[in-house]
Amino acid sequence: MFLLNSVLVSIFTFLLMFGDSHNRRKGALYVDNGYDQTEIEDMSLEENNRMELEMLSILGLDSTPLRSRSHSNNDPIGSPTVPKFRTFNDVDNFEKLKNTDSRTKLASKFLLDLYDSLMEEDDELSRRQRALEHNLNEDEQFAIDVSDVIMTFDNIDDESTNARPEKGKRLWFDFSKLSTTGTVIGGELRVYQNKLNAQRRNKTVYTVIVYELVYKYSGESSLERISSVSTTQSFSGWLGINLTDSLISWVRLFDYSKGLYLAVHLGDKPGHEIMPEEIGISVVNNGEGTQPFMVAFLEALDDDVRRR
Questions:
Q1: Which of 24, 27, 109, 166 is disulfide-compatible with 102, CB 3.0–4.6 A?
Q2: CA dist., res. 174 & res. 265, Å (int)
Q3: What are the subcellular locations of this protein (predicted)?
Q4: How many structural domains are present in the chain?
């Protein structure tokens, strides 16, 4: 109960002090006057600034949250920035994240939906509901629970990289900022599959394989298989492909990463490659928000950002 009261007092104090960062008001605290009553005690500007820095540190924020521009002065307080949820090739500000077009910035929508689900009561029932909504396996659930920072990366489309007559899709992500953010404890590629042939049952098993593009000293390139997942045409939803080990290597040797190659093979014919679109897998930005993206789960380098 003491911990709960402390959290409530901290949140109330934070909202009271930072509720309107555009129209800064003098800070104040509700305190017990010794007679089982509460009263407002004004704070000096110096005390206000010092308390602000302490509260920002406790909440893991590096700056005072801003109100959404669409809010009026009579609207409720806007949502604070959440630096523990970040998306690159996009924006860091959470208010901007909320207003991002989900059809074209699916990585942002994934973070926003995940943020909303984490704000719910953290019990076993809500965890199962979260796993169902986001198609998360146990490893992904564990990574979410123990990570300090969750980051997403949009695929950097380059038509020239797919100019060759390939059936698969070449993907590339910019991980240059990962090394300064935290230590990688998990990483996955998420690709979306639409259900096909709904009127007839097709039990054929397909293998979705992710290869790493590797360039040799001779200048020649080759594909190294790093992970895979099985699926059928009747499946609809997100496929998560574990790329943790590769992501750790790319952070250490960023220049070594030359991209990924996504391929689909018939389960009983490993040498028979088909186009991902043939089983409903989206590999391009079609405006529907189903293009592939990467998720990284990190342990923060900064103690102020750590959850525990």
A1: 109
A2: 27
A3: Secreted
A4: 2
Determine what percent of the chain falls in helix, strand and coil, rounding each to the nearest 5.
30, 30, 40
Quote the tokens at residue 227. 């992970």
Taking alpha carbons only, the member of 238, 239, 258, 243 closest to residue 184 is 243
**Are the C-beta atoms of 135 and 237 separated by less than 8 Å?**
yes
Say what percent of the chain tops pLDDT 70: 42
Query: Which residues, other chains included, contact 20 with Cβ-Cβ below 8 Å and sequence gap of 6+?
Result: 67, 73, 77
Domain span at residue 243 reads 106-305
Report how far Cα 95 is from the mean position of its chain's Cα atoms.
Answer: 15
How far does Cα 161 stand from its chain's mean position? 26
Question: Phi and psi for 30 in degrees, rounded to 5?
Answer: -90, 125
For residue 128, give the H/E element and its range.
Answer: helix 124-134
- pTM over cut 0.70: no
**Mean pLDDT over all residues of the chain?**
66
Q: Are residues 137 and 247 in the same domain?
A: yes
- Which segment, 13-27, 233-247, 251-265, is predicted with the most confidence on average? 233-247
| pLDDT greater than 80 at residue 262 | yes
Asked if 118 contacts 89 with a C-beta cutoff of 8 angstroms, the reply is no
CA distance 277 to 227: 19
Instruction: Give dist(CA 46, CA 169) in Å, integer.
Output: 57
3-class secondary-structure state, position 270: strand
Give 207's DSSP letter: E
179 in the same domain as 255? yes
Q: Which residues contact 234 (CB under 8 A, 6 or more apart)?
A: 195, 197, 198, 201, 202, 203
- Tell me the C-alpha to C-alpha distance, in Å, between residue 241 and each of 18, 59, 63, 175, 225: 41, 32, 35, 17, 12
Per-residue pLDDT tens for 67-78?
A: 333 333 443 333
